[in-house]
Design a protein that fits this description.
- Pfam families: PAP2.
- This is Phosphatase PAP2 family protein.
- The chain is mainly α.
- 61% of the residues lie in helices and 5% in strands.
- It has helices at residues 2-18, 33-57, 62-66, 88-104, 113-116, 119-143, 158-161, 173-192, 197-220, 226-252; strands at 256-262, 268-274.
- A hairpin with a 5-residue loop joins strand 1 and strand 2 (268-274).
- Helix 1 (2-18) runs parallel beside helix 4 and helix 4 packs antiparallel against helix 9 (197-220).
Length: 276
C-alpha cells in the first residue's frame, strides 16, 4: 500500500499549500478540525505499520496452498483464479497508476475558488474519510482470511503462491481507497454547488470510472476475486459519500455531534452521537 500512502501524503501537502485562503463562504459542512484532522493523520500514519503487520499475518505456507481447491470457490469468482499469469505484472502497474489518479482527484477541487476558501475543512474531511476507511479495511482484512486468486492458479510455481500477503484477498483495499477518493470529490463538488438531477448522476458516474479500472486490473493481477472488488467499491463509496454527508447534516442540526473518545487502556476514537 506504499503507492496509496505516498499519493495521499502528496495530496495533503498540496492541499495545505494551496488551500490557505481565508474563508468567506458558508461551507455546507460543520467540521471539527481541532481534533478530527490530527486524529485522522495519526490513524493514517500508524497505518503504515498496520499494512506491514497485515502482510505478515496474511502469510500462506506451501502446505496451506496444497490444500486449496478451486472447486470450492463460488462459480461467480472462480474464473479469476485461472487468468493468465503473464499479464499479472502489467495489471499490477496499471492498478497502481489508476489508484494514484483516484487519490489525486480531489486536488481538482482547489480549482474552485468557492471550495478553495474552505480548503482546510475539505482536507480535514478527506483525511477523516481515509482514516475511517483504513480502520474498516483493517478490521475486515484481519478478521477474514481469504486466499488470493493467484494462489489457486495452476500457471504459477509454488514459491509464487506462498509467503506474505497471500491470504488478504477480502476485500480489495485498492478499490476501496480509490472509490473513497473519487466519490468524496464528487460529493463535495455537488454539495458546494448544489448540483442535482442528471448532472449529479453524471458526476458520480464519472467518479466510478477510476475505481472500476483499479478493480479490473486488481483481478487481472491475480490479487482479488470479483466479490472482493465489488465489496471494496461499496465500502469506499459509502465512506466517500457518508463522511461529508454526516458533517453536512451536523451543520443543519445540533442533535448530531462528533466527539473524540479516550479509554483507560489508551485506545482513541471518534464518537458520533445523535440526540432524539
Amino acid at each position: 500500500m506504499k503507492v496509496y500512502l505516498s499519493s495521499l501524503i502528496l495530496l495533503i501537502y498540496t492541499t495545505v499549500s494551496f488551500g490557505q485562503t481565508e474563508s468567506t463562504t458558508r461551507s455546507p459542512y460543520r467540521v471539527y478540525r481541532t481534533y478530527e484532522l490530527p486524529a485522522s493523520l495519526v490513524v493514517l500514519g500508524t497505518s503504515i505499520f498496520g499494512y506491514r503487520q497485515l502482510d505478515r499475518y496474511a502469510n500462506l505456507t506451501a502446505d496451506e496452498v496444497s490444500r486449496l481447491n478451486p472447486a470450492q470457490i463460488n462459480a461467480f469468482d472462480r474464473p479469476v483464479a485461472f487468468l493468465d499469469p503473464a499479464r499479472f505484472d502489467g495489471a499490477q502497474k496499471r492498478s497502481d497508476r489508476f489508484l494514484n489518479i483516484s487519490i489525486a482527484s480531489p486536488i481538482l477541487l482547489i480549482l474552485s475558488q468557492r471550495i478553495r476558501k474552505e480548503g482546510l475543512d475539505v482536507l480535514t474531511l478527506y483525511t477523516t474519510a481515509h482514516a475511517i476507511n483504513n480502520l474498516l479495511y483493517f478490521g475486515t482484512a484481519f478478521s477474514i482470511r481469504r486466499a488470493r486468486p493467484l494462489t489457486y492458479n495452476p500457471g504459477l510455481q509454488i514459491d509464487e503462491k506462498t509467503g506474505n500477503a497471500k491470504s488478504n484477498s477480502f476485500y480489495s483495499g485498492h478499490v476501496s481507497f480509490s472509490t473513497t477518493a473519487t466519490f468524496f470529490a464528487a460529493k463535495v463538488l455537488t454539495d458546494f454547488y448544489h448540483i442535482k438531477g442528471w448532472k449529479r448522476v453524471a458526476i458520480f458516474t464519472a467518479a466510478a470510472v477510476p475505481p472500476i479500472l483499479v478493480g479490473v486490473n486488481r483481478m487481472e493481477a491475480g490479487k482479488h476475486f470479483r466479490t472482493d472488488v465489488m465489496t471494496g467499491f461499496l465500502v469506499g463509496a459509502a465512506v466517500g459519500i457518508g463522511v461529508p454527508e454526516l458533517h453536512k447534516r451536523s451543520r443543519k442540526t445540533d442533535r448530531l455531534s462528533f466527539q473524540p473518545q479516550f479509554s483507560r487502556n489508551g485506545a482513541r476514537g471518534l464518537a458520533v452521537s445523535y440526540t432524539f
